[in-house]
């Protein structure tokens, strides 16, 4: 790596730290930079897990006090995250790099629409059909598990999908949802990294440069996010989700 590549990777990691703590999906910012550093798509994907890990680790630490208010079912959610990470990572290694190019934009489009309409859908169901999301926990857990499988496979936009599920099936605030999202994604990411490392598809030097940027960006963003009003955080996440979806269609179609 030359100095330009190092600076670009660090800057990409810095931006990834900001985005991942707030909304998730920063991989679409970092993945092209890892490709530009000379990696294959499989290597860039696997290395991306290493690069953005600190954002979720720092987010978990900052939001740890929020976990006490949502600790019910947290152990089961961590189990789902671990199992989904194993399955998704195995699928990636077994099927190769071509398959995810076709489906990612559509998954992100679904996630963005779900997140945007989540509160309206929940309100309508509660008003017209006496819908109580707590009675459909099994469906919420099933959807979360599928997201974790997807996360172990590629992971871009995973946080947005999780926010959409929480907004429909729970009464959690954005900050409570952020707490669960960060701790479960951290566990899933660690498991995926172990699997990818054993398969020999992680390029460690560029990953660690980007990781240092992500650690810095994640720390400061998490501190700021806790002070931003709920509706502003949500609007920020939605804006990023729209941009992320548009970028994915431009890149992969």
Set down the secondary structure blueprint.
Blueprint: H1 3-22, H2 27-36, H3 41-62, H4 64-67, H5 74-95, H6 99-129, H7 137-153, H8 158-169, H9 174-199, H10 204-225, H11 230-252
Helix pairs in contact: 1-2, 1-3, 1-10, 2-3, 3-9, 3-10, 5-7, 5-9, 6-8, 6-11, 7-8, 8-9
Structural account:
With 253 residues, the protein is mainly alpha-helical. Helix content is 83%, strand content 0%. It is built from eleven helices and no strands. The protein has helices at 3-22, 27-36, 41-62, 64-67, 74-95, 99-129, 137-153, 158-169, 174-199, 204-225, 230-252. Helix 1 runs parallel beside helix 10, helix 3 (41-62) runs parallel beside helix 10 and helix 6 runs parallel beside helix 8. The longest helix has 31 residues, at 99-129. The radius of gyration is 17 Å and the shape is globular. The mean pLDDT is 82.
């Amino acid at each position: 790596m030359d100095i330009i590549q190092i600076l670009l990777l660090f800057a990409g990691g810095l931006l990834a730290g900001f985005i991942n703590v707030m909304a998730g999906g920063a991989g679409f910012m970092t993945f092209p930079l890892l490709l530009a550093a000379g990696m294959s798509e499989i290597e860039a994907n696997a290395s991306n897990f290493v690069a953005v890990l600190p954002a979720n680790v720092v987010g978990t630490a900052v939001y740890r006090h929020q976990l006490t208010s949502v600790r019910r079912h947290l152990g089961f959610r961590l189990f789902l995250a671990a199992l989904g990470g194993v399955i998704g990572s195995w699928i990636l290694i077994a099927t190769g790099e071509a398959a995810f190019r076709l489906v990612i934009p559509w998954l992100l489009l679904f996630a963005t629409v779900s997140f945007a309409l989540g509160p309206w859908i929940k309100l309508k169901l509660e008003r017209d059909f006496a819908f109580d999301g707590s009675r459909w926990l099994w469906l919420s857990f099933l959807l979360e598990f599928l997201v974790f499988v997807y996360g172990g496979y590629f992971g871009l936009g995973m946080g947005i999908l999780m926010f959409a599920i929480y907004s429909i099936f729970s009464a959690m605030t954005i900050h409570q949802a952020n707490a669960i999202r960060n701790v479960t994604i951290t566990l899933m990411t660690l498991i995926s990294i172990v699997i990818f490392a054993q398969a020999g598809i992680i390029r460690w030097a560029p990953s660690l440069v980007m990781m240092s940027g992500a650690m810095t960006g994640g720390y400061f963003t998490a501190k700021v996010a806790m002070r931003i009003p709920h509706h502003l955080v949500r609007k920020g996440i939605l804006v990023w989700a729209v941009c992320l979806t548009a970028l994915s269609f431009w890149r992969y179609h």
